[in-house]
């Protein structure tokens, strides 16, 4: 979703902004722009629809200065045009602003304060910079004008504002949308996430909601909107520059798929000691033990990971688990149990829908645990507890290693709680050993890339639709597998409980409809799924089978090493990630940046 980067100080701003925007590309965007200023008489505003490369092609050596702000826009209000691209300017052109989020009362503001203002585009953002400009025209100082605007604006926002008459300051504020300060020697930065600044600094400072920062080359002064100063310590980010490179891989997604065995081993060393004892935070264990029901709230792939873990959590902890779609629960919270515990699953830790649920949960006094890949993210900061995924940055929009890491992290949590409860199933479950076998199973599947690419070419080259089917955990993997396929190949795909097809959807099966069947459960369940395969094959479907070793037959297409049933969703999803990858690649699509999508979905 929209990305912001800004710098003030002794550096080449154009270079830093462009590098930063390139690092933010993974978030998803459809236009971009930068504003760079050297002195009040020398500044440039450049915008472009399309990729950062298109913006770069418009930038000449005359775009130079030590202060600037840049933006990637993912259109919400108004189409992807240059007029709507950020930065936006005030009526006189004196103020320049970038924004991430949605200003909910922008039409009201326009009516109440900006009569006669000629707005160039259709965005909600433009009113914010006009508002500041108007208040300065009315006689307020820039700071007072910004504060007054912040008191009026409602919704989600991360703002960076420059006054062209004072190129040595960037005014920053945020509410609900992510924004961070990066601290350097003789320069300071602002950015939507650390990845865009890690080349320049490893020192960061958080900004909380409804805080304002006056950023100069030597200082980052934090205050609330009434001007009360706030002390905030900086921290060192653990990110390594090499973690965010693609290396020799053609796409991040393939690199991230390949990293999964390493992520499994990292989780073992994080959540178990050398004797195999769980090292999950005892306060988290206690909080789960006290709950009479666990509610997992998430979106997209993270939601699917919650489902894939549900039966494992219930068996190991003896606590019922309910899943909720975050975008639904934020405003339609169902009747809860007496002692609920909320688990927020989120790769990015910034998903606005999930955050809305957390805000509600906090207001209701419900204990919460965020399981995320991003330390210091909003969901992590605002939940009662955090468990980190330690998967390393996930850059491809299509989530892969975060999904498998979420299931593995939930396995550690479940085993730790189950052991604390004295549950036999938990005590007997040698998670460290079983997860090591999962890592080996993933490695084995990763050696089958050529086979999988070949099968994909035969099955999915020209199709417009497809189905994944499975039972039990395979059904939940089918949901994730179909999301992955449609997300990056644009093939319309549904994940079905295999037995459900004949209750309606089988009418869609015709000659050559691809049906991908997943089989990892018990022999009886496997036999039922095989029956469903016969039903669709009899109606002309082209069937591809992904089957766990032990249940496989000679003519199955892809065989996956057998692992413990609690963890089979991890090993079974790997071939489906590769299927999606090759389907996208073979169609000549941008695997890492599918159309219309964003990596961190920071608007509701
Ligand atoms: O960062 P989160 O896990 O909260 O994101 C939730 C979804 O937006 C995300 O999983 C999305 O579905 C992925 N792009 C799917 O690959």
What does this 3D model show about the protein?
Among the domains are: 240 residues, Aminohydrolase, N-terminal nucleophile (Ntn) domain (Glutamine Phosphoribosylpyrophosphate, subunit 1, domain 1); 143 residues, Glucose-6-phosphate isomerase like protein, domain 1 (Rossmann fold). The chain contains 19 helices and 25 strands. The model has no long low-confidence stretch (mean pLDDT 94). 5-amino-5-deoxy-1-O-phosphono-D-mannitol binds next to helix 9 and helix 17. Keywords: Aminotransferase, Cytoplasm, Glutamine amidotransferase, Repeat, Transferase. One of its GO terms (cellular component) is cytosol. This is Glutamine--fructose-6-phosphate aminotransferase [isomerizing]. Homodimer.
Annotation keywords:
cytoplasm; Glutamine Phosphoribosylpyrophosphate, subunit 1, domain 1; 604 residues; 19 helices; binds 5-amino-5-deoxy-1-O-phosphono-D-mannitol; 25 strands; alpha/beta; Rossmann fold; seven-stranded antiparallel β-sheet
Distance between the termini: 11 Å
Weakly predicted, low-confidence segments: none
> What strand line-up does the widest sheet have?
3-2-4-1-10-9-11-15
Structural class: alpha/beta
CATH class membership of the domain at 3-242: Alpha Beta
The major β-sheet equals:
8 strands, antiparallel
CATH topology of the domain at 3-242: Glutamine Phosphoribosylpyrophosphate, subunit 1, domain 1
- Globally, the shape reads globular
Which hetero ligands occur in this complex? 5-amino-5-deoxy-1-O-phosphono-D-mannitol
Global Rg: 25 Å
The pLDDT mean sits at 94
What oligomeric arrangement do these chains adopt? Answer: single chain
Total count of strands: 25
Task: Tell me the CATH superfamily of the domain at 3-242.
Answer: Aminohydrolase, N-terminal nucleophile (Ntn) domain
């Amino acid at each position: 979703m929209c990305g912001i980067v800004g710098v003030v100080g002794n550096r080449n701003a154009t270079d830093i902004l462009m590098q930063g925007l390139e690092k933010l590309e993974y978030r998803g965007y459809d236009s971009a722009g930068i504003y760079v200023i050297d002195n009040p008489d020398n500044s440039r505003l450049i915008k472009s629809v399309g990729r950062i490369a298109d913006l770069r092609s418009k930038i000449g050596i005359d775009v130079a200065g030590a202060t600037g702000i840049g933006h990637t826009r993912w259109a919400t209000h108004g189409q992807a045009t240059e007029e709507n691209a950020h930065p936006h300017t005030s009526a006189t052109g004196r103020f320049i602003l970038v924004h991430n989020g949605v200003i909910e009362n922008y039409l009201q503001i326009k009516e109440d304060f900006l009569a006669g203002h000629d707005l160039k585009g259709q965005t909600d953002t433009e009113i914010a910079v006009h508002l500041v400009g108007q208040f300065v025209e009315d006689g307020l100082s820039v700071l007072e004008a910004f504060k007054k605007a912040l008191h009026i604006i409602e919704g989600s926002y991360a703002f960076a504002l420059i006054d062209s008459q004072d190129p040595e300051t960037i005014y920053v504020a945020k509410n609900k949308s992510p924004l961070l300060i990066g601290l350097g020697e003789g320069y300071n930065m602002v950015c939507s996430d650390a990845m865009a600044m890690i080349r320049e600094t490893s020192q960061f400072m958080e900004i909380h909601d409804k805080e304002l920062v006056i950023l100069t080359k030597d200082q980052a002064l934090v205050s609330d909107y009434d001007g009360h100063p706030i002390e905030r310590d900086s921290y060192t980010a653990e990110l390594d520059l090499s973690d965010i490179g693609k290396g020799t891989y053609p796409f991040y997604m393939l690199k991230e798929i390949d990293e999964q065995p390493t992520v499994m081993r990292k989780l073992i060393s994080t959540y178990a000691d050398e004797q195999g004892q769980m090292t999950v935070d005892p306060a988290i264990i206690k909080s789960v033990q006290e709950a009479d029901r666990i509610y997992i709230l998430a979106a997209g792939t993270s939601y699917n990971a919650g489902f894939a873990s549900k039966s494992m959590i219930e068996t190991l902890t003896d606590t019922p688990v309910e899943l909720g779609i975050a975008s639904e629960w934020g405003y339609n919270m169902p009747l809860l149990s007496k002692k609920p515990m909320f688990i927020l699953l989120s790769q990015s830790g910034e998903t606005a829908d999930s955050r809305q649920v957390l805000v509600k949960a906090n207001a209701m006094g419900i204990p919460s645990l965020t399981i995320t890949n991003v330390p210091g993210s909003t969901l992590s900061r605002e939940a009662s507890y955090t468990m980190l995924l330690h998967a390393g940055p996930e850059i491809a929009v299509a989530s892969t290693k975060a999904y498998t890491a979420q299931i593995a992290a939930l396995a550690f949590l479940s085993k730790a709680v189950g052991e604390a409860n004295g549950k036999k199933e938990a005590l007997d479950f040698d998670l460290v050993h079983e997860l090591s076998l999962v890592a080996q199973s993933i490695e084995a599947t990763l050696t089958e890339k050529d086979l999988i690419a070949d099968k994909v070419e035969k099955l999915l080259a020209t199709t417009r639709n497809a189905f994944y089917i499975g039972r039990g955990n395979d059904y939940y993997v089918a949901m994730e597998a179909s999301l992955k396929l449609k997300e990056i190949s644009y093939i319309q795909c549904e994940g079905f409980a295999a037995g459900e097809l004949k209750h309606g959807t089988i009418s869609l099966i015709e000659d050559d409809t691809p049906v991908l069947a997943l089989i990892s459960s018990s022999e009886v369940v496997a036999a039922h799924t095989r029956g469903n395969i016969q039903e669709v094959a009899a109606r002309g479907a082209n069937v591809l089978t992904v089957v766990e070793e032990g249940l496989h037959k000679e003519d199955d297409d892809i065989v996956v090493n057998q692992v413990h049933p609690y963890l089979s969703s991890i090993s079974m999803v790997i071939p489906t990630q590769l299927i999606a990858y090759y389907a996208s690649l073979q169609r000549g699509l941008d695997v890492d940046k599918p159309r219309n999508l964003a990596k961190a979905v920071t608007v509701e």
